[in-house]
Design goal:
The structure is a homodimer of 431-residue chains. By secondary structure, chain A is an alpha/beta fold. Chain A contains 14 helices and 18 strands. The first copy, chain A, is 36% helix and 24% strand. Strand 12 of chain A pairs antiparallel with strand 12 of chain B.
Chain lengths: 431, 431
C-alpha cells in the first residue's frame, strides 16, 4: 500500500449517498488493491442527522452544513450528492474547490448550468471536477469521451438519457396504452416522480446532453441552446404506425456538428428497428458516440439507481485516488471554444407526418401540391380508413427535409378545409 | 501548451500502424488540445522500407530493427504493432521496457501469453504497458474495466470478441447457408483470412478473453485455462432451430466466477433473442460487464480495422501524454492472485441437444429414462418428421444441467440403436 488513505466527505445521504457509503465499506479490499491505497469515508453531511438510512454514521464526522464539510481538514475529496443547480450544492462545490479539495459530483443540473465556470475554478486550483455519475448513471461515458475515444473527432453523440421516458415509451409500445395511463403506472412503480415534469418534459435529458456536447466538441456548456421537447404528445397511434413502418419511438438527446454549427436537441425520435438503440428498453440508458476513426460505439446500461450511480461516483473517486486529474471537459477549461448553435429551423432530416383528413376527392392532391411547392418529397404514404364518414388517417414519411420548409408546409396543410386536426410530426433520426 | 512533445516510435506499419501515423497527422490540433502537449511520430520500423503504404515516411527516423527502435533516444513511447506472441514483437517490447519507455501495443497474442511477466517488468521500471487495442478493437473496454467500472466486483464478463466469426454466423442466419459456403464468401470479401483457423477455431477470441479475465478478476493471465471451441460445427439446421426457439447462435467468450473457480470459455452459444448481444451482427464486437453495483453494462463497436484500432492505440497514447500510468491489469502485477480454473465438466447451464432418431415406438421413452436417471430435466422438446422412413430430428432444451452429467447422457443416448447420429449439443447462456 504505497499511498496514504484517500478521505471522502460525502454531502447528501439519499439513495446515491447511501450507496456510495455502502460501496466504500463493502469493497474496501478491492478499492485498496486497485488504487494502491485505502479509500475511506471520513465525514458526511445531510439535512437530517436522525433519519434512518440503514447506515451506521457514527464513524464519520457529521456536518450540518455541506459548505463546512467541503472546507474541512478531514477530507481530501468532496463528494456532492445533494442535487440542484444552485443553493447548497453549488455553494459547497465552490467552497471545496476554493479549499483545494478534489470534487466528485453526480449533479447534472449543476454541471449543465455552471460546468464551465466550475471547471475553470477547479483547474486554477489544480483539483479534479469529476461528474461521471451526472450522465447515464453507471455507463462510463464521460471517461470514454474524455479518454478512451479522445483520439477521435466526434460528429454526433446521441442517446437515451432518461430512464423514466424510456420506461414510459417502452410500456406504451408493449401495452398499446396512452401516455397518461402509463405515467400513472410508472409513478406507482417508482419509475416516475410524483412531479414528473423534469423527466417527461425532457429537461433532465437536456442537462445530460449539454454535458456530453461540451465533452465531445470542446465547447462551453450551453444548456440554453438545447431544443427541448418531451414525450407528453407521443400518442399510442403514433407508436402503432412507427411499428408498422419499422421504427421505434425513443426520446433521444442528440448533439451533432452541422454546417450551421452544433445542434443540441432532445425530442421524441423515430429510429429504425434494426438499430441497437431501438432495442434499449425500460429504464436502461444508452449513448452512441460517432467518431472519425472509431466509427460508432454504443454504450448501454442502467441510467439511475443506487448501485449504478454509486459505481460511477466510485470510478471518479478511484481516478483521484490513483492520481488522475484531467480537465473536466477533456480540454483545458480556458481552451473551450464556442461553437455556433445551429438553429432548429435549419435542421435537416426525414420526418413522420400524421394527418387526419376528410375522405373526399382531391385531399391528397392538395397536400401533395403544398409539399411539392416547398420542394419536400415523400418517401412513403400510408392511408387508413376508419368508419364511413369518419376522418381518414394519412401518414407520410418525407425524404430529407429542412425543418423550416416542413413547418411552413404543416401550417399550410393545417389550414386546408379537408384537414381536420393539426398535423402531427415526429423527427426520424438516421442512425 | 504545458509539456514537451510526446514522441512515438511505431514498430509495424501494416494497416494499424499506417492508421496510427495517419491519425497523429490528421488530429494534431485535437491531440494537442486534449493532451496539453503535442503528440508526434519520430521514428518507425517495419520489415520493408520501400513498400508503398501511401505514407510519407521521410520525416521519421527509420530502424530496420524494432529492438533498436525500442531503445532509441528519439522516442518516449514504443508502439508495438508487429504482432505475434514471440519473436521481434516480444523482444522489442522487453527492450523498450528495459530502456524505460512506455509501451502501447495492439498485440493480443503477446499479452495473452506473456502479459503478467511484461506487466511485472513495466511496473518495476515505472512505465506504462497499455493494450486497449488488443481487445475488441475500438471499444474502450480495457479502460472501462480498469477505471470506469473499477468500483465493482465483477461476476461475469462476456462478449462477441471475434468479428470474423460473428460475420459468418450472422450471414449463415441471414442466408440459411452452411459454414463452408459462408466462409468462402467471407474470405472473398476480406472478412476472413486465407488461413481462417486462428479466427474460426476460437483462438483469437480466447486471447482476448484471457486478457479480460485478468483485468476483471485480478488474476494472472491464464490462456491455458481457456476452454476453446470454434464455429466449424455450427450447422444451418441448428441456426434454424435456434431461431424457432427464440435464440441466436453467437461465438461468445465468457469469464465467470463460479463456486469452482473462474470459468474461461469460448464456444458457440445460444442467447435469447431479447438480449442486446443477440442483435450485434456482422463484424461488430460487443462486451458485457456484470458488476455488483453497476449491474450490466454493454459495449458495442467495431472490433477490428484501421480506424477503430488506431483509435484504441491513440487512447492509450493520450493517457501517457496526460501522465496517466496505471497497472496494466488494474491491480499491481505482483498483487495478481491466482484463482482456480473451474473445470468445464463442472459447468452448469441449460443445453440445446439435437438428436437424429428412428421414427419408432419407445425412442423418446429411452432417451427420457437416461436423462431422468442422471437427474437431467427437460424444459422443452421439439420433434420434426421428415419423409416417411427417414430419421426424425428431436431437439431438447434442458434445464440447468451439469456438463459432466450431460456428457454422460449424450454418450449413453448416442449408443441407443434408435439414435442414428452423435447427439449435437450447444450451450445456452442465460443472460
Amino acid at each position: 500500500m504505497s499511498g496514504s488513505p484517500l478521505r471522502l466527505g460525502i454531502a447528501g445521504l439519499g439513495t446515491v449517498g447511501g450507496g456510495v457509503v455502502r460501496l466504500v465499506l463493502q469493497q474496501a479490499d478491492l478499492l485498496a488493491a486497485r488504487c494502491g491505497r485505502t479509500v475511506q469515508v471520513t465525514a458526511v453531511s445531510a439535512r437530517d442527522k436522525n433519519r434512518d438510512r440503514g447506515l451506521d454514521l457514527s464513524p464519520y464526522a457529521w456536518h450540518d452544513d455541506p459548505v463546512a464539510l467541503a472546507g474541512s481538514d478531514d477530507i481530501d475529496v468532496f463528494v456532492e450528492l445533494i442535487g440542484g443547480e444552485d443553493g447548497p450544492a453549488k455553494q459547497a462545490v465552490e467552497a471545496a474547490i476554493a479549499a483545494g479539495k478534489d470534487v466528485v459530483t453526480a449533479n447534472k443540473a449543476l454541471i449543465a448550468h455552471h460546468g464551465t465556470a466550475l471547471a475553470m475554478a477547479a483547474e486554477s486550483q489544480g483539483v479534479a471536477l469529476n461528474f461521471e455519475a451526472a450522465v447515464a448513471g453507471g455507463i462510463p461515458i464521460v471517461k470514454a469521451l474524455r479518454e478512451g475515444l479522445a483520439g477521435n473527432r466526434f460528429s454526433r453523440i446521441y442517446g437515451i438519457l432518461n430512464g423514466t421516458c424510456n420506461y414510459i415509451l417502452s410500456a406504451m409500445r408493449d401495452s398499446g396504452g396512452d401516455f397518461a395511463d402509463i405515467l400513472d403506472e410508472a409513478q406507482a412503480l417508482g419509475y416516475a416522480e410524483a412531479d414528473p415534469a423534469f423527466d417527461v418534459d425532457g429537461v433532465d435529458a437536456a442537462h445530460k446532453l449539454a454535458i456530453l456536447t461540451s465533452l465531445a466538441f470542446g465547447c462551453p456548456v450551453n444548456l440554453d441552446a438545447v431544443h427541448i421537447e418531451g414525450i407528453r404528445n407521443v400518442s399510442a397511434v403514433d407508436i402503432e404506425f412507427a411499428t408498422e413502418l419499422g421504427y421505434r419511438i425513443k426520446l433521444l438527446g442528440i448533439a451533432r456538428l452541422t454546417d450551421h454549427g452544433v445542434e443540441q436537441r432532445v425530442h421524441p425520435c423515430m429510429v429504425a428497428e434494426s438499430t441497437a438503440i431501438a432495442h434499449v428498453d425500460g429504464v436502461f440508458n444508452a449513448v452512441v458516440a460517432e467518431g472519425d476513426f472509431v466509427d460508432r460505439v454504443v454504450f448501454e446500461g442502467r441510467g439511475a439507481g443506487e448501485g449504478p450511480t454509486a459505481s460511477a461516483v466510485m470510478g471518479d473517486v478511484m481516478d483521484i485516488a490513483r492520481g488522475i486529474r484531467l480537465p473536466a471537459f477533456s480540454v483545458a477549461a480556458n481552451g473551450l471554444k464556442t461553437i455556433d448553435a445551429a438553429p432548429m429551423d435549419q435542421h435537416i432530416g426525414p420526418y413522420y407526418v400524421r394527418l387526419s383528413v376528410l375522405d373526399q376527392a382531391g385531399v391528397i392532391a392538395d397536400i401533395s401540391a403544398i409539399l411539392r411547392d416547398l420542394e419536400l418529397s415523400i418517401g412513403s404514404l400510408l392511408q387508413r380508413g376508419r368508419d364511413p364518414g369518419e376522418p381518414v388517417t394519412v401518414v407520410l414519411i418525407t425524404h430529407e427535409s429542412q425543418e423550416a420548409a416542413l413547418a411552413t408546409a404543416m401550417t399550410q396543410i393545417g389550414k386546408l378545409d379537408s384537414v381536420v386536426e393539426d398535423p402531427k410530426i415526429i423527427r426520424i433520426e438516421s442512425l
